[in-house]
Amino acid sequence: MESAIDTHLTCPRSISRRVPDDYQPPFPMWVGRADTEIEQITMGYLGVQSHGEAHRAQALTAVAEIVAHLDHPHGPSHHDVTHHVDGEGYDNFIVVGYWADPQSCTRWLGSPEVDRWWSSDDRLTDPVGYFREIVSPRVDQFETLYAFQDRLPGVGALMSDISGDINEHGYWGSMRERFPLSQNEWMQPPRDATLRIVSGDPAAGGRVVVAGHDNIALIRSGQDWREAVEPERSLYLDEIQPTLHQGMDFLRDNGADVGCYSNRLVRNIDLDGRPLDETYNIGHWRSLEKLERWAESHPTHLRIFTTFFKVATELDKLRLYHEVSVSDAQDQIFEYINCHPGTGMMRDASPAANQ
């Protein structure tokens, strides 16, 4: 049995684990193994926001344009496209890209075609809104977990290999202990950390830039039932999915009370907007600790966790996974154009001093 932390990232611990050295997990799980040359990656959430069926066509056209921009020498190694309706009733289409190094993403953002499009005054008069939420964690600042071993989604698409059975799973606190950084750091934000609007006014629309803070946590937790057949399909649709939706709706509507800045349960789509049998949650949290406390205490997550424990050894085609990261403030970008004030990190951001 392997450690979730790759050998080249292992170091002497100053923070003890929650379980004894002879702990044996109740079923097998795996993590992605990145090439040792990868030191930092970038996750880019590139959004288009619209309201009502009248603007759906324009939104999908904008999504297609963003996807076309990805076909670039410095574009991401992998991307997918999602849709969800947020708590204010707005449609949100998100193109999610993954880069194996932040320099490539920076070059992509600064390329004439991408920068010209984002910076154009046309974005201010378009009938849809836009956002980009981009974080670049180092390899010691993220962890993965998969109940399968092939065709890894999300950041897993950047991984060159898959682990053997890992030790750090099946107990509260195992998520944290899969982070290489957890060997010696608690990954806490500064005590006075807040989100801050550094330019623009969400209530007025237009362009808004939000500054984050160190150790914002980001989770992508996915469910893929495209290849599932009975009884796995019913297990997911009838038992897991309803409880999942309850928990994600709670975080969407009440996240500010528990330290969740933004929560979106999204469904994968094709470029024509047709839904696929795959979803994932995108959650931004003030800290890894806030995410842990909710996961360990909220009834909906406890029900999901218990159900998974009961069926984990029987899963065949139902693919469940997650990836969790923290990032430094200097490695975060949160920008919005004509989005409603409750979008993403704007909801909990303090106004600029001159407003």
From TrEMBL:
It comes from Gordonia oryzae. InterPro entries: Dimeric_a/b-barrel, OXD. This is Phenylacetaldoxime dehydratase family protein. Its cofactor is heme b. GO terms for molecular function: lyase activity; metal ion binding. Belongs to the heme-containing dehydratase family. Keywords: Heme, Iron, Lyase, Metal-binding. The lineage of its organism: Bacteria, Bacillati, Actinomycetota, Actinomycetes, Mycobacteriales. Signal peptide: none annotated.
